[in-house]
Amino acid sequence: MPQQGRKRLKRDVIKLGETEVEVHEEGSGQPMLFLHGAGGFNPKEPHVPLLAKNRRVIAPSHPGFGKSALPDWVDNVDDIAHMYLDLMDQYGIAKADIIGCSMGGWITAEMLSKAPERFGKVVLVSPVGVKLGPVDKLDIPDIYTMSPPDVPKLLYHDPSLFPFDPSKLSDEELSVIMRNRESTALFVWEPYMHNPKLPHRLYRVKSPTLFIRGESDGLVSAQYVEGYAKLFKSSRIETIAKAAHVPHVEQPAAFAKLVNDFLG
């Protein structure tokens, strides 16, 4: 059983109901959930220890990502939100701050709409999950119709700093990457990148909420983030320079300072 106050990092596989979910823990202090985006969770990325310096970071890999199982009945973001509320119960966490990145931001918003009393402060990093524009136009570019070399241009301020070289990866690492991509498609495809009901449920959220966006984000526009933030009672927006859709990866120090200052 997971324990409060764990100071060393650990990677466990726990059961939520009958579903095995991989969970990374690092640091000690007040618990903070970290929900990753479509690329999966990588504990080696430098923002992780920066966040864990003063907090107990609990970062599950979503169903179908990393080593987490993907049962047949889990096929939308709403399912994951329910599972993570169960995860909080299993860890004995009555209330926690939470960070959600991109698709993880969508899961976070779903969790907030269901159990707002269980969350303190909220950080949403380039989140998706709501429909704000005209019904005949996508709010988020369709990455599945693009040429693969074009997608990194939306994700990174400088894609050359994050080259993808399969020859330098193990078979296991490549398998995880492919599995992450397949699972992302399952969860975000229909309707594309949003739940049409979610905007009507977010009025329940009272948590102070920080939206973070990279200035060069080609997926989530500034206009989209501004509209998203207006759905929350208490929110503000910060933009990180020289970053795009993954500011926590591209500018980890600036990202961690914003988050740590906000969380206190």
Tell me about this structure:
- Helices cover 30% and strands 19% of the residues.
- It has 264 residues and is α/β, with parallel strands linked by helices.
- It has eight helices and eight strands.
- It has a single domain, classed as Rossmann fold.
- The protein has helices at 47-51, 77-90, 103-114, 151-155, 171-188, 222-229, 247-250, 252-263; strands at 10-16, 19-26, 31-35, 56-60, 96-101, 119-125, 209-214, 235-240.
- It is globular.
Summary tags:
alpha/beta, 264 residues, Rossmann fold, eight-stranded mixed beta sheet, 8 strands, disordered N terminus, 8 helices
List the helices and strands and how they pair.
Blueprint: E1 10-16, E2 19-26, E3 31-35, H1 47-51, E4 56-60, H2 77-90, E5 96-101, H3 103-114, E6 119-125, H4 151-155, H5 171-188, E7 209-214, H6 222-229, E8 235-240, H7 247-250, H8 252-263
Parallel strand pairs: 3-4, 3-5, 5-6, 6-7, 7-8
Antiparallel strand pairs: 1-2, 2-4
Helix pairs in contact: 2-3
Largest sheet: 8 strands, mixed
Low-pLDDT segments, ≥5 res: 1-6
Helix content: 25-40%
Name of the level-1 CATH class: Alpha Beta
Summarize the helix and strand pattern as letters.
Answer: EEEHEHEHEHHEHEHH
Q: If you average the pLDDT, what whole number results?
A: 95
DSSP, total strands: 8
Q: What is the CATH fold-level name?
A: Rossmann fold
Count the helices. How many? Answer: 8
Estimated structural class: alpha/beta
Task: State which percent range the strand residues make up.
Answer: 15-25%
Radius of gyration computed on alpha carbons? 17 Å
What is the correct CATH architecture?
3-Layer(aba) Sandwich
Task: Name the strands of the widest sheet in spatial order.
Answer: 1-2-4-3-5-6-7-8
Q: Based on the structure, what is the oligomeric state of the protein chains?
A: single chain
Tertiary shape: globular
Count of all domains: 1
